Amino acid sequence: MTQTAPPSPERSLGQLLSDLSEQTSRLVRAEIDLAKAELVGRLKALGAGAGLLAAAGVVALYLVTAILATLVIVLDLFLPLWLAALIVTTLLLLVVVLLGLLGVRKLKQGTPPTPARAIENVQKDVDAVKGGLAR
Description:
- The chain has one domain.
- The chain is 84% helix and 0% strand.
- The protein has three helices and no strands.
């Protein structure tokens, strides 16, 4: 920032206020620019982190497939291949059904997505204000 010369004793109050306004404006702009730069840096880090997490999720899906194939192969050591595959498939089906039922239950708990208690409190506030105005 450029510094201005110290005010001379002959300057009027209006000039001093004008200088103060100008300097305050410059300071606010500098702070806004600093905040923008900081936010851009953080958003870049967030984007990189989100991308890495998405990549980890994709690789995790491949890992689940490999684990399931390994489970079928291990069970094949003790059982016929068709039975090993059937057991793993049945276990997966049970997990899918359980997760689906739990998901549906949670969705039903969240619907309708209205803040019922907040609406009730606002209505009470409105009624209290109306009661106060009626007096």
